């Protein structure tokens, strides 16, 4: 076949190929007009950066973690870079409680972790929870404030003001629920009289919260906690028409699980308690009756009934304030500064077993024992000058240990200046309530 014949044979094929290419280009152009052009995919940069891009914030996600890669499919940054979260939590729960406020400032995830129940519940289950002593006090001008004592650092620290309704209140109650919630309830406002108000402070969130109001306005009442339920009894409330005062026999109980108050059986007679304690699953109350006579009553939550404490006449007769129950025994102060204790022996039906500190602080108002609480299995006596004495009553030879807070010298100087200025008749600093919170 000659060259001309080959060219003649190949020409139709070449022209057909060109025609096909033209048709494809025309079809492609038509499709481009009908469909929007797709953008090329951006290839991710694999170069490491010390300033990773911050993903868009969305509710419920934390993007301020400690240095993890950002934007990785919406995953949270680790609590501690390079460690799994469970191992990071195991490290954080061992940080002393006094430094927890610093942990909350690190990032949002740490702050949320320390504000929840999981963190402190884990500390409690592993025996890492720390007990601090909180003292609510009133100064010479009637202002209410509160301080906290960290036993590990042996120093009192002033806390932010209490809620406004309790800044000048009198006769209010104080109790602890759940080991970490400090309740202030009732009392008398200088302008509005008896209140039903209830607030509580959470040692875990470090904040004050509102709780449901009590069913009756009352002040000067008794309160206690049994079975993680808060009981209030007696006191005085508003008279008929809201004026004057009247003794109360009514008793209320607050159940935090249901978040509500309800009435239980009334007391046998109206009473204004001045000392009370929970012992042996029952609540013992001693106070003044309607005729200002000393009365004692005991409440059994199982039977929901009140009765006179006739079977414990010896206990009631020798029972003084302050007192506390520890290890199944009831202890009470046997001297003004609380350095000598007595224990009630139920088998013998008498007070015995004195625990004497040997050295006494004196009998002045400043060193008067204002409260007694159980702290880490020991008895802790708190005085008006904010000095603290601790004794292990379970030891073979109990020995007193005095913890001097920084508030002691300040209170001593204030009382001394008041005495020099002729202020002996004025009310001095006094500890109203003392409780232990665990976190």
Tell how many strands the DSSP assignment holds: 28
- Ends apart, CA distance between termini: 103 Å
Q: Strands across the major sheet, in which order?
A: 3-2-1-28
Rg from C-alpha positions?
36 Å
Give the helix/strand class.
Answer: alpha+beta
What do we call the CATH homologous superfamily of the largest domain?
Kelch-type beta propeller
Which fold does the CATH topology of the largest domain refer to?
Answer: Neuraminidase
Give the % helix.
10-25%
Per CATH, the architecture of the largest domain is 6 Propeller
Supply the number of helical segments: 7
| The level-1 CATH class of the largest domain | Mainly Beta
Report mean pLDDT, rounded to a whole number.
80
How is the biggest beta sheet arranged? 4 strands, antiparallel
**Overall structural domain count:** 3
Shape: globular
Range of strand content: 25-35%
């Amino acid at each position: 076949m000659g060259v001309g014949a080959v060219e003649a044979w190949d020409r139709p094929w070449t022209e057909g190929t060109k025609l096909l290419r033209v048709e494809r280009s025309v079809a492609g152009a038509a499709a481009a007009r009908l469909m929007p052009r797709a953008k090329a995919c951006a290839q991710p940069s694999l170069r490491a950066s010390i300033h990773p891009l911050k993903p868009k914030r969305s509710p419920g996600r934390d993007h301020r973690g400690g240095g993890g890669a950002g934007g990785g499919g919406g995953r949270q940054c680790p609590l501690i870079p390079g460690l799994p979260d469970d191992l990071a939590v195991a490290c954080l729960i061992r940080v002393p409680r006094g430094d927890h406020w610093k942990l909350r400032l690190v990032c949002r995830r740490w702050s949320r972790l320390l504000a929840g129940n999981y963190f402190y519940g884990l500390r409690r289950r592993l025996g890492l929870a720390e007990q601090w002593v909180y003292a609510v006090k009133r100064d010479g001008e009637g202002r209410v404030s509160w301080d906290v004592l960290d036993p590990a650092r042996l120093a009192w620290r002033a806390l932010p003001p209490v809620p406004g309704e309790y800044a000048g209140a009198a006769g209010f109650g104080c109790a602890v629920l759940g080991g970490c919630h400090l309740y202030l309830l009732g009392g008398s406002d200088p302008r509005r009289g008896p209140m039903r108000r209830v607030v509580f402070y959470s040692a875990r969130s470090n904040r004050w919260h509102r709780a449901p109001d009590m069913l009756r306005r009352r002040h000067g009442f008794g309160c206690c906690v049994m079975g993680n339920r808060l009981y209030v009894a007696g006191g005085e409330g508003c008279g008929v028409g809201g004026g004057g005062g009247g003794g109360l026999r009514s008793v209320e109980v607050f159940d935090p699980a249901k978040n509500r108050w309800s009435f239980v059986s009334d007391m046998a007679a109206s009473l204004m308690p001045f000392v009370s304690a929970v012992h042996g699953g029952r609540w013992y109350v001693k106070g003044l009756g309607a005729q200002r006579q000393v009365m004692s009553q005991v409440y059994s939550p199982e039977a929901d009934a009140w009765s006179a404490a006739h079977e414990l006449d010896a206990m009631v007769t020798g029972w003084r304030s302050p007192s506390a129950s520890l290890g199944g025994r009831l202890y009470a102060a046997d001297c003004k500064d609380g350095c000598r204790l007595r224990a009630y022996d139920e088998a013998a039906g008498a007070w015995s077993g004195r625990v004497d500190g040997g050295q006494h602080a004196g009998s002045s108002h400043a060193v008067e024992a204002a409260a007694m609480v159980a702290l880490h299995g020991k008895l802790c006596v708190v005085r008006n000058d904010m000095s603290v004495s601790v004794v292990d009553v379970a030891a073979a030879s109990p020995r007193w240990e005095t913890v001097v807070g920084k508030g002691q010298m300040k209170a001593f100087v204030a009382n001394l200046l008041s005495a020099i200025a002729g202020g002996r008749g004025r009310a001095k600093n006094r500890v109203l309530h003392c409780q232990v919170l665990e976190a």
